[in-house]
Design goal:
Largest sheet: 6 strands, mixed
CATH architecture: 3-Layer(aba) Sandwich
Shape: globular
CATH superfamily: Glutaredoxin
Strand order of the largest sheet: 1-8-7-4-5-6
Number of domains: 1
Oligomer: single chain
Structural class: alpha/beta
Helix content: 25-40%
Distance between the termini: 51 Å
Strand content: 15-25%
Number of helices: 5
Length: 211
Amino acid sequence: MAVHSVPVPDLDPPKRSRWTLWLVMLVCAAPVIASYFSFYVLDLRGRAYSDLITPTRDLPPAMALTTLQGAPVSAESLKGQWLLTYVPDRACDEGCERMLFMQRQLREMLGKDRDKLDKLVLVPDDVTLTPAQIDALTGHGAPATVLRAPRSAIEGWLMAAPGRRMGEHLFLVDPMGRWMLRSPATPEPSPLKKDLERLMRANAGWDKPGR
């Protein structure tokens, strides 16, 4: 049996460049397409609990992030891991503390996949956390990453649902730094956990435990 090679059309450089561009765009879009397919087409149980963000919104590379001590932090350093993000948009009251507890609880509820998800708390520059609240975030179990940023920068990236405050939601950011999911206001942990699992399962190849 003879094996013959198939002739390859001799594309001129402009056509080859266009094909290369389309291929790159397809590769970049594939994870997002997989997310939407899993979230809506494969969700046989009905309507999803959370809002999938369309289109996704990239973490601004120039966002002025700092630690609570004022040391600068690169936005790029947050990539490589799923980020369950909370924004205490005013003085952290009982409702805020309940959301922070839920953030910790949801990570633990993921079981073997919990190491693929980090907790991120973005504190607007005009909000102050008490020492006890900071200790609860950073001193027990898997600590949250707690960073400050200008309120305008946070609000230019993440958004509350109409008529709601940002501090009433949890936000999921994918390992490429794209905001993908917003929980309902004052969410319930169990249905939100199912949404997190569905998205993370659809994109299992993006991330490995540990950032």
